[in-house]
Design a protein that fits this description.
8 helices; disordered C terminus; Gly_transporter (chains A, B, C); transmembrane (chains A, B, C); cell membrane (chains A, B, C); mainly alpha; Glycine transporter domain-containing protein (chains A, B, C); homotrimer; 214 residues; 0% strand
Chain lengths: 214, 214, 214
């Protein structure tokens, strides 16, 4: 996969996460500027953390102005199209899943390209994928989605990062196979939401009472 | 504007934001050490993020000990002078506005001096200006001021960063013009608080019910 | 103290903080993956911030895979052994204190080894020590322990960082003296919890009403 295709997938991931941020901004009653800022934080935050960890010059989000387009487009799209804020929750989950799927693949590939070893690349890919969403939810005073025990979030991201690493090392990475890995992650995430697939709780012998959390 | 004058404005910005952090610490019932730490986080956090993004050696706040003075002075000032914690909210807004005004200018100039392009410098200036306040409010479990839809916060910061960039490129930057840009930002922020100037909501067709937020 | 002994103390600190993160995950009803992620964030977060500030290549947590063992061990330990989640609060405080004690010493020594001056090293040591806990509590929507006015948290960390710097400069640093500094910090923190030692409030003339906070 050449660099331009990776950039396209990355920008698409920024856009998806930015939409999730702008949707949350509408639900919280933020204004258009707050929507743009939260969208930018969510869309660009994971990648900025990744680039800071890679420690190879200023993050792309600050040096390459094309990264500013997806958050601006997301804020405009949400501003003009969202009619029913209360019902936008489902959309938020879908766009968040799209961002997760794209970033666990592109984040891993960027780390591999920067010369990190496979394990570090998988970790950085997952960090890129979950980082923006954690910033979004913490800023808006919610518990991050990645910690919701009722569905799968980090596991699909780890699978996507693992697939990307495998494809890269086997020399099978093309735009098509990269996009397929993304689709797998997206499907796993959405199916876990639909059918309530979940991991075991953090303590084996503890059964939470109904509805109890936090 | 020579480097020393920029340093003075920057230290003043640290002091203003640090006072806002210490005032919030008193409202939340933190102790003096917590006040010093929250003041340091708010005063130094935005600049540390900026320096990390610039990726040019350890952040100034850690290497230049003079940056420790403003937070210490802020914690002491708040400790000895604040009588009525409940009424300190207005003061907090004022000091926060002062920090915002100073940092959007100094942050932008530091980025320009480090060789960033104008757009990246404006983004970094705004990040410096809003970063410390976001850290403050998220740490204290409040929704960050920058997302409050009832007044303007990021827009004055963008204007200040734009003015600083313009002055720099036109060769008109002196201590006086830099300070004037700061005053413009401060005035815009305070006037928006006073007269309720605000941006449109994040979704055009949504009208929040009275008092509804989050 | 040679590098391997410092690594061992550092890994032990990661483990202690990771256990505190996993215990909080059980209390919040997170699942096993969320426990692993929160444990990793808490255990590795402070050190990642320190390494990013030192700006000397990618953080050790991403490049040295041995750092992944303590969070994995912590999540497994908590999963298999915690029976009564409601009563695990005391354990959480103990492991958090252990992490604090180890990290204020190892964080300071890592900064000194990287060539930072004594004051910057103490600041970075304290940042390492309190950083992971702040990430933990903010992510889980709690006010960070470091801001709790009912006991001492940052002061023991400053003492430990100061002791480590002193031992280093006097040439008295060995595994034994380093471990002793750690024990001093741990003891101060636990005694302050037991006997309610605390610092003065952030504003001298303010007496909070009983139970009032935030």
């Amino acid at each position: 996969m050449n660099f331009d295709l990776l950039l396209i997938l990355d920008l698409l991931g920024v856009f998806f996460f930015a939409v999730s941020g702008c949707l949350l901004a509408t639900r919280k009653g933020f204004d258009l500027v707050g929507s743009l800022l939260l969208g930018s934080m969510v869309g660009l935050g994971g990648g900025v953390i990744r680039d800071i960890v890679l420690n190879a010059g200023p993050p792309a989000a600050f040096t390459n102005q094309i990264y500013l387009l997806p958050p601006a487009a997301a804020a405009a799209l949400v501003y003009f199209t969202v009619k029913n804020v209360q019902r936008s929750g489902r959309l938020l989950f879908m766009f968040d899943a799209g961002g997760l799927a794209l970033f666990c693949v592109t984040g891993t590939l960027k780390a591999l390209e920067a010369g990190m070893n496979p394990v570090a690349s998988i970790l950085l890919g997952v960090t890129t994928a979950v980082g923006g969403g954690i910033l979004r939810d913490v800023t808006a005073n919610d518990v991050p989605k990645v910690f919701d025990p009722k569905d799968l979030y980090a596991i699909p991201a780890f699978i996507g990062a693992g697939l990307a690493t495998g494809l890269w090392h086997l020399g099978w990475l093309t735009f098509t196979t990269g996009a397929m890995a993304t689709v797998v992650v997206f499907a796993l995430r959405m199916l876990s939401l639909r059918y309530g697939w979940h991991a075991p709780l953090a303590a084996r012998s503890w059964t939470p009472r109904r509805g109890q959390r936090g």
